[in-house]
Amino acid sequence: MTKQQHLIALDLDGTLLSDNKVISEKNKKVISKAMADGHIVVIATGRPHRASIQYYHELGLKTPMVNFNGALIHHPEDKKWDVLHNPMPKRTALSIVQACYDLDVYNVLAEVKNQVYLDKYTQDLIDIFYETGDDTPFIIGNLKSKLNEDPTSLLIHPKEEHITSLRDHLDEYHAEVIEHRKWGAPWNVIEIVKKGINKAVGLQKIAHYYQIPQSRIIAFGDEDNDLEMIDYAGVGVAMGNAIEPLKSIANHVTVTNEESGIGLFLEEYLSLNSNVK
Predict the structure, then answer these.
(1) In 186-229, at which residue ranges do the beta strands (DSSP E only) sit?
(2) Strands 107-112 and 235-238
(3) Distance between CA atoms of 64 and 41, rounded to whole angstroms?
(4) How far is it, in rounded angstroms, from Cα 44 to Cα 199?
(5) pLDDT in tens, 26-76
(6) Which are the catalytic amino acids?
(7) What is the pLDDT of residues 235-253, one digit of tens each?
(8) What is the pTM of this model?
């Protein structure tokens, strides 16, 4: 569509990645062609650094990255880059943890950049965070005694019947200081970060760094943690498998993550020819 330089922001789960958590050959080739043509590609994910860096390297990126839905914005390849880390106050986090204990949730997990605090040992939850094969140790035990610094994010795994009451509690008592989002299936996980933090914050910082106007930002997403980013981008693209509220505010809707929706959209929009079906 145009040869001007664009900033391309990619959510991971349900967007760039297939349901099997891999990047399709189509997506990989088109993204590579976009970078060769001078476009800037960044990852913007709710995942922590350690659970997204393998995809960063797989795509051959040399750009900043947005983790924890904007609570951590950093540059894996440039340690001099101005890192932005916005954790929530520990006092707020521990108050929420107490509410989780009162509701007898399955588990609560706190992250401080790359350090993980897990309230109870749960193999299923650990498997999610160990999918990179990384051997960063978990600190396991009661978060009210173990968590000793402001966390970047909290992840709550509630019983399904408690999701609504827990989110209502968060709105009633903590709405002024935190944001909370629900992960997509199959995990009923509620993710909490500091108020005012979202992927658009990270995208704005990176766009300013590269001096790319809002109108030339292309962002892809599928879940409610992508809402601000898709709304902020001049070219907001919802995946075919995205939630309806995201599709309703997006400028475009592409096909699903299983059908290489990112690659197909970029190929047409940026007039790229990857020679991959």
Answers:
(1) 190-194, 217-221
(2) unpaired
(3) 9
(4) 6
(5) 999 999 999 999 999 999 999 888 889 999 999 999 999 999 999 999 999
(6) 11
(7) 999 999 999 999 999 999 9
(8) 0.90
